[in-house]
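hey so u asked for the seq, here:
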Amino acid sequence: MRFGFWPNPRSDYEATKTLAQHAEATGWDGIWLADHFLPDEDELIPVHESWITLAALARDVPRVRLGTLVAGNTYRHPAVLANMVATLDNLSDGRVVLGLGAGWQQNEHEAYGLDYGTTGSRLDRLEEACQVLKGLFGNDYFYFDGDHYQMQRAPLEPKPKQAKLPLMIGGGGEKRTLRITAQYADEWNVWGDVTILKQKMAVLDQHCEDIGRDPDEIERSAVALLFLSDNEKYLQRMRAADIAMPTIIGNVSEVVDVVAALQEAGVKELIIPDFTLGTLIGADQLKQDLMEKFITQVGGEFR
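ran it, structure tokens below
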């Protein structure tokens, strides 16, 4: 089982680099970055662009996988994105995962004049973008005549370093997103606990069956907030809190049990955001200590 680390996008690059290097040195398998330009609340907070940041990390962190969790398809034309990703895969010696989603953060679209459309239209564009990306990665020249994107003898050189650069689809929409995942993805990611994962995986498997694809061809990963502590009063407070996102709460033994249940459900990678480790922004020692405690004492049980 792999373990990925997700630095807070509001941290500056020095903090992100420090955490990523610490993750690599202590045994984590991947670094994942959110793809946003501004917060989803009305605050003037710096947010670094994800792909440029990944390029810097490719230089400063030489071992682990590097990916977006996930890139918003509406922010870049898929042919432009394909060139960016292929270049970064070569610069990183074949370590890039292209995480892609339909895009959801409306205030970004409004601020920058990007077409937000409807949920359906964004999913239509995502489905066409998957075809464009796969077509550019796999052909010398690619032709495509879609409703949203058109290609005329479009090349992509250099190709990605990896013979098959992984395309990860992020999201849990059962009618469209998981069908698109079944059709095009190499990996899939969703926020979820064991119950959610089992439900979504059953739907994904059914979509695979409907199109005649082996569901085992798609690796599954999960994201959850981590609250790891030996302080039982703190853990009780977190368990009683109204936290909107899926969580993993407990001491080392309890967290090992949760991770084991995720693995049993079919999760191949668990991605942990740093948002609940130490201070919200930055690379303080508490955060690094919790990162190391998780990957050595919990992750070590699954190596």
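The chain has a mean pLDDT of 96. The chain has ten helices and 13 strands.
lmk if thats what u needed
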